[in-house]
Amino acid sequence: MFEIPKVGDEDSQYDGSRAFVWLADICGLSVDLINFLVCQILALFFASFFRSYLHTSKVTTNIRHAFGLTLGLYFGYFCFGQQAIHIIGLPAACYIIIRTQNPQIIQRLVMLVSLIYLSMVHLHRVYFDYGSYTLDITGPLMVITQKVTLLTFSIHDGIARNEHELSKSQKFHAISTLPTTLEYFSYVLHFQGLMAGPLVFYKDYIDFIEGTNFLKHTNVNSKFDKVDSKIIVEPSPTKAVVKKVIGSAICAYIFMNWITVYPIKRLNEDEFIENTSFFYKMWYMMMATTTIRFKYYHAWLLADAICNNSGLGFNGFEKDGNPKWDLISNINVISFELATNIRDAIGNWNMGTNQWLRMIVYERVPKKYGTMLTFGLSALWHGFYPGYYITFISGALIVNAARTARKLFRHRFQYSESSRIFYDILTVITTRIVMGYLTFPFILLEFKASLRLYLNIFMCLHIIGFITLYVLPRFFSGEKRSPQSQKTNSVPISTTDSLVSGSVRPANKDDKIKIAQSNNAHNYEQIVDDLANNSNQCDINIKFITDNNLETNVSNNVGTTGVTNSGGMAVKAVNEDTICSNSLSNDTYDYRQQTSTDQHLSKKIRERIDSETRNIEEFIDKTVTGIVELRDDLMRVNESEMYATKQEYGSGIAGTDTDGLRKRNLSEGKNEVEIFLRKEINNANVLPAVLSNGHE
């Protein structure tokens, strides 16, 4: 059975508090997990206190910084004991570099120092606590490394680079002023994200501390309301927090029940390898890795709920006016588990780390080295267990093979609704099997044990990957396009300058798209993949009606622009301004459509899942709303009783006009409220959530 070393065992290197050993014995968990849960639950309540009583309308930003930093340091010491010195040492060394070195090179120096520091701690764990699953300081240090490197790259972009050299995301996150000591350490060590993340950009964190994060987004329904545009009501995160806490609890329950049925350590047992069938081994790998994922789901959802409960993570409004609290979310459970290909699965897993790797590596190196350097940094950041590198190397092979297989076979299932449903179901199941096959070394950690199991199942998916890459293309052809589509190779070519974080860079009139001609169908897929990778939140549909050797001016404004090619032929470029199209025709080829079906299940299955999800959300919404309404009713009842008591007390005093006294008090209170609101409207942009029922 899978067991985590208890405090007091000879092999345990855990140095955190032992105050809850008794609770660990009762629950059957190790004390490190109990300490983690205690800290996160306390953080959830302190987050509510932070949002309500340390609001920007009540205290200064320095107090908010100091509170978050102090509580973060306490949690760090409680969970890690003397090891907590590292969560101060690493950012302190990096801050010295930020303050003393040239902005032209600080990003490289900080990355070098932080990775060396993190690597030394990783090596210490490998040497003294090899293969242990005990909670240790490497987890928080990995998040701190992300923050300090991301911060220094933003400082470098804001101080040492010209604006025209920056991409859209780099411009948005660029920092032109060095942070103060309090701001820096508060950002790195704040209690909301110290234990399990999520990663947050420095500018987003400062906006949250200063209370300006709500100014960036306006409710879409506000234009229909006769409300002064200067007043922005802070939305309540209560519903989002409740949903995420419930989801986290469900994931923890699943993990606790399945871990006894599918312990990962069994993959290393002689009895399992020698006495089980090939298909059972494949099934067990899939289920064991799925079980471990639910532990991460639990931690990430709870961490996201903590941030949201403190007011961090607001990301605008839905079309129906409901607030979104997914700015720093680290996981999309349903999209990951129902992904139809490896790329989509990776995109919905540990999204903060994906964004970090893209921001500091992929966007800043030559394209031909981007993937290799990104995988290399990811492996180094995770540590030095051999299982990590087996997973990354195998993953590179399987991802390329999956892309090739999709090009060769996907179009053969797109001729009817039933065939598309079958293809989606098949690819979902295949992705689950492949994920188990690829990721069990990542969890098992050991090289010998991982290789032994791979050889016992004949390296089956590795062999299939090589066959798919080098043999099948000789016997199967890719998708056959119509003569018009083969003749037309006009595609919207975008870079990270134009599509970042779901936003579109308006093109200048001088911007042109060179229409390259090629008979290789793989070029289409590569361009579509690049477009999909650069735009995670915004679907763009640009239809081109072109001929050979055309140059088309592109604008993001709604409308139709006439264009003339070198031969004098008039051409139209129609931009529907970020509206996704679902149609294909012989005259126009929608390149976005080819990837959209790979990102989700078929329409019918997706509608069913969405329906069930809405039912659960409605139930939670009604429950939370009922609790809030009950609280308001109780407050009104108490208020009525208070007035009744005053009236009775007043009647006992000779000739006291209680009605007049009550009316006068209410009138005075009303005048005070009106004066306060008028003052806030004139002097502030944000109406404090205390007045807007934002702090429910």
Structural account:
With 696 residues, this protein is mainly α. Among the domains are: 1-212, no CATH class; 238-310; 499-594, no CATH class. Helices cover 59% and strands 4% of the residues. The chain has helices spanning 21-27, 31-53, 61-80, 85-100, 106-128, 138-159, 168-173, 181-189, 202-210, 238-258, 270-275, 278-309, 333-337, 342-347, 351-362, 367-382, 386-409, 417-444, 447-456, 460-470, 472-475, 483-487, 522-534, 593-599, 603-651, 658-683, and strands at 232-233, 499-500, 503-504, 512-514, 542-545, 551-553, 559-564, 570-575, 686-687. The strands form four sheets. Strands 5-8-7 form a three-stranded antiparallel beta sheet, with no helix packed on it. Helix 3 packs across helix 8 (181-189), helix 17 packs antiparallel against helix 18 and helix 17 (386-409) crosses helix 20 (460-470). The longest helix is centred in the C-terminal third of the chain and has 49 residues, at 603-651.
